[in-house]
């Protein structure tokens, strides 16, 4: 996933800078960098092709939460109460 | 986590040596963290500003962890140690205390009358000195913490093992920056000047203390002289490969471990303790 851009003189420095710009908060296991001139991108005028014409929220997994199953959950609760 | 420290019976002579070692580690981290944080917002470019400030935060974090270990050993709490101790109670090395100003620093600007340190950094701050200092210090951290991670004083060993990832980044940052900046004439001259200036103070990180023998015999820490040799065998080839000269015949700048500091320590504490001194004991 692309998380952002950095100014750097070369790839090594870009990695060095990217680590502190983008891996300070969320968990991260690996960073890759690509020079800007190696990127082919869609024009911003075509942003409408990424819009959903109908509700597709079923694709989003945000509704799922990790939760222990029933008996285990009450066991955990007992532990903390 | 409940204190494991207090469960360990420590002989007084060993406890004294551990307390002294922890003060040295904590004070070094606090003061270099403070010094590097003075650059926040003033760094040479946005990305490096953030990276350098992150390293400063890491060092503050390490310092806090060492102060908390001291608390478990019966010393005052971290806030008391940081905000109320006097200059003759800090045990940091001179390397971390120095102000990183260029030679022509006689006149600072006066843009913000309430923050003279910032004004002077803007006017005559020499980032190459701060960078070389952090490079020297990170290499020392890497060597010292690697050794301490097998210390017989288990709470300390556990702590420094947790810092390994951060120190890995610090050395990666320092090495890459030194190498890049040594690649052009102008920046190499600046880096070399900083190396020449700071080398004796870097050697001073390994000032022998009266506790060395105890710490070695108890398997808590290697002797400072041994750590210094390891540091030199790591750092000297890095400087050499970058085309930098290693200052010959430098005399180590000692004194910090017995609480004798460069003049800059007074103004640093005036800054750092300014708010706390306005209303001692205030609740935040």
Describe the structure.
The complex is a heterodimer of chains A (81) and B (284). With 81 residues, chain A is mainly α. Helices cover 28% and strands 0% of the residues of chain A. Chain A has two helices and no strands. Chain A is flat. The model of chain A has no long low-confidence stretch (mean pLDDT 81). Chain B is an all-alpha fold. Chain B has one domain (12-278): Ferritin (Up-down Bundle), CATH 1.20.1260.10. Chain B has 13 helices and no strands. In chain B, helix 2 (46-72) runs antiparallel to helix 7. The two termini of chain B are 25 Å apart. The chains are: A mainly alpha (81), B mainly alpha (284).
Q: Please bin the fraction of helical residues of chain B.
A: 55-70%
**Secondary-structure element order of chain B, N to C:** HHHHHHHHHHHHH
Largest interface: A-B, 12 and 12 residues
Average per-residue pLDDT of chain B, rounded, comes to: 92
Number of strands of chain A: 0
Name the CATH homologous superfamily of chain B.
Ferritin, core subunit, four-helix bundle
Instruction: Write down the secondary-structure element order of chain A.
Output: HH
What does the oligomeric state look like here?
Answer: heterodimer
How many helices of chain A? The count is 2
Shape of chain B: globular
Termini separation of chain B (Å)?
25 Å
According to DSSP, the number of beta strands of chain B is 0
CATH topology of chain B: Ferritin
- Estimated radius of gyration of chain A: 21 Å
Backbone shape of chain A? flat
Strand content of chain A: under 5%
What count of helical segments of chain B does DSSP give? 13
Largest sheet of chain A: none
What is the helix fraction of residues of chain A, given as a range?
25-40%
Strand content of chain B: under 5%
Stretches with pLDDT under 50, minimum 5 residues of chain A: none
């Amino acid at each position: 996933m692309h998380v952002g851009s950095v100014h750097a003189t070369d790839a090594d420095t870009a990695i060095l800078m990217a680590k502190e710009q983008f891996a300070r908060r969320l968990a991260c296991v690996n960073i890759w960098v690509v020079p800007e001139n190696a990127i082919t991108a869609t024009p911003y005028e075509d942003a409408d092709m990424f819009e959903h014409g109908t509700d597709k929220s079923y694709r989003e997994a945000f509704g799922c939460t990790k939760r222990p199953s029933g008996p285990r959950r009450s066991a955990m609760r007992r532990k903390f109460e | 986590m409940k204190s494991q420290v207090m469960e360990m019976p420590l002989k007084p002579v060993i406890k004294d040596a551990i307390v002294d070692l922890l003060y040295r580690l904590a004070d070094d981290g606090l003061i270099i963290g403070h010094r590097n944080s003075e650059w926040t917002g003033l760094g040479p470019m946005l990305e490096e500003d953030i990276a350098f400030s992150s390293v400063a935060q890491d060092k503050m974090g390490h310092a806090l962890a060492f102060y908390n270990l001291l608390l478990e050993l019966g010393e005052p709490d971290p806030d008391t140690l940081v905000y109320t101790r006097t200059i003759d109670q800090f045990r940091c090395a001179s390397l971390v205390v120095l102000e990183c100003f260029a030679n022509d620093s006689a006149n600072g600007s006066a843009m913000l009358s309430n923050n003279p340190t910032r004004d002077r950094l803007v006017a005559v701050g020499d980032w190459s000195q701060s960078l070389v200092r952090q490079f020297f210090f990170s290499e020392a951290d890497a060597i010292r913490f690697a050794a301490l991670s097998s210390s017989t004083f288990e709470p300390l060993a556990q702590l420094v093992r947790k810092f390994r990832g951060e120190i890995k980044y610090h050395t990666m940052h320092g090495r890459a920056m030194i190498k890049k900046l040594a690649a052009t004439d102008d920046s190499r001259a600046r880096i070399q000047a900083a190396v020449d200036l700071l080398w004796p103070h870097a050697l001073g990180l390994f000032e022998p203390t009266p506790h060395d023998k105890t710490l070695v015999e108890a398997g808590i820490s290697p002797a400072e002289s041994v750590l210094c040799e390891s540091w030199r065998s790591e750092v000297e080839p890095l400087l050499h490969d970058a085309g930098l000269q290693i200052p010959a015949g430098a005399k180590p700048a000692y004194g910090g471990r017995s609480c004798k500091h460069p003049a800059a320590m007074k103004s640093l504490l005036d800054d750092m303790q300014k708010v706390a001194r306005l209303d001692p004991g205030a609740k935040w």
